[in-house]
Amino acid sequence: MNVHRALFDAHVERWSAALPAGDLYAPMAYLLALPGKRIRPTLTLMACELFGADPRNALDQALAIELFHNFTLMHDDIMDAASLRRGRPTVHAQWNVNTAILSGDAMLVMAYSVLGSDPYILSVFNQHALEVCAGQQLDMEFEQRAEVGLAEYREMIRLKTAVLLSAALRIGAIKAGATEADQQRIAAFGEGMGLAFQLRDDLLDAFGDPAVTGKEQGGDLRNGKKTWLLIRGLEVERDRGSSALRDQLAHEPSGRDVAVMIMALRELGVEQEAQQEVRRLAGTALEELGRIDPTGDRTAALRALAISLIDRAA
Amino acid sequence: MNVHRALFDAHVERWSAALPAGDLYAPMAYLLALPGKRIRPTLTLMACELFGADPRNALDQALAIELFHNFTLMHDDIMDAASLRRGRPTVHAQWNVNTAILSGDAMLVMAYSVLGSDPYILSVFNQHALEVCAGQQLDMEFEQRAEVGLAEYREMIRLKTAVLLSAALRIGAIKAGATEADQQRIAAFGEGMGLAFQLRDDLLDAFGDPAVTGKEQGGDLRNGKKTWLLIRGLEVERDRGSSALRDQLAHEPSGRDVAVMIMALRELGVEQEAQQEVRRLAGTALEELGRIDPTGDRTAALRALAISLIDRAA
Q: For residue B140, which residues of chain A lie inside 8 Å, CB to CB?
């Protein structure tokens, strides 16, 4: 992974340094330079190498994926009225909303500019880009709704998060000339990993160490955010006739006792259930890798990356 | 023109009718259905036919141009805090800002989805799409600046308005296999027409008949919008040592006497100068058409459209 990450870092730095001056471009360079894992472009390069090509061949496609991802961050932060991202002001907080809208738009155009004109890559990219928009739309709808089911939540996460990991891998594979069957396997691996990754995120909010995550423990719970944990917790409570979570949600966010909510999730068995679900999703995803590479030699790095993502503490 | 317009109208209606349900897509259909001239897609079809191909071959590219144009309208209306477009509520007024951001994003992705994968068309589209963003960026910057020069204004209009007309024509020409030289000519025609079209817009604001335009006479002047007329008017005033425009601009918008400002523009010779400039730009543009088609037979419809746009009263 480090080799691929270093390759990509150099590529994105060259690209950022070549941007024209002005407020249309400066927010792009600013957002790209915030500390981040750069998982998606790394996956593109690794998939390209896995199927026998030089990962450098996929640098522009990896860049397109990363530009697209950052475009969604720029606009999602406006929609969520978020003032901080990775501990730094968001683009609309640092500049203003109009600049964040317009610079995001231009960033999406630039993603297409570097993506190239391979018809198959374009169609995978377009399809997944639209799915990411549909996922964000669902996410906003869920905030307005009183009840969201676990299956709906999973579909939202699939669209909003998992499909882009899937597209990142598939595009790297296409670039290397992988067979359709192998493309489907690597895409399924990505989707499963994306679901596991997001569920791990939900777990970290409630059960992570705030000194490591850098976030308030249970921030999502306090805000009543309909995550896997809260949705499932309320389901189990309904079955059992208990109401610790529901009672806390009846208060305003500032009046909620987050420690009580976390305790309730533990007692309801939801923490354990979520951990099992992460392992199940990751296991199924890794099986897809096994179908591509039965000996495991060529996929060792991808496996290690996958495991580091689902075991991560921050 | 009517044939091309009818072809396109049927295509866009089919496309809109096939959109999935939900708030991600409904704003697209809503905006596309507002009464509009649909100049850009019509130009794409006409250019395709001019260079010897069936205009139906360029329907998807014309749709891509129209989707892109409507995406910019959706986002520009947010940035300009505009509540009305063509007499109807803007998307963010009808739904909300977040929906307008996200539906606009998805509309841009869908523009690419229908554009196809011709590398040359993609590169023309990408370049011009980025220029349109740069034009909107300049437009917003100019609002914050005390002084804007005529050359800067022209460059802003070129980027924000003229290049998309140019791209619409060029893409139609590429689709028909036109030579590079002919592509450059039709693109130059489009750019000149776009500049003339926008200057005609500025003239109609001050000197048009509000009963025909449907807008408050001198609305741009009241708002101190830095149009060609106001920029040039202030220049001439400075040279002459007069100050009617400047005096009015010293008041708040609600206290400005628009009739005095319109009179001043007439007396300073700016109305006449702008009319000459429209004719000059249109004349140069039409010369480019003459280079493509010396007898004028094949370009009669394009010429008629161009003349109707610069002579229009609304």
A: 98-99, 102
Chain B: give the shortest CA distance to residue A92, in Å: 13
> Is the pTM value of this prediction over 0.90?
yes
- Note whether B102 contacts A75, CB cutoff 8 Å: yes
Q: Residues A151-201: pLDDT tens digits? A: 999 999 999 999 999 999 999 999 999 999 999 999 999 999 999 999 999
The size of chain A, in residues, is 314
Chain B contact for A24, CB < 8 A?
A: yes
Q: What residue has token string 């969201």?
A: A148
CA B99 to chain centre: 24
Query: Given phi > 0 = left and psi -120 to 50 = alpha, else beta, which region is A214?
Result: left
Q: How many beta-carbon pairs under 8 angstroms link A with B?
A: 88
Are the C-beta atoms of residues B139 and B160 closer than 8 Å to each other?
yes
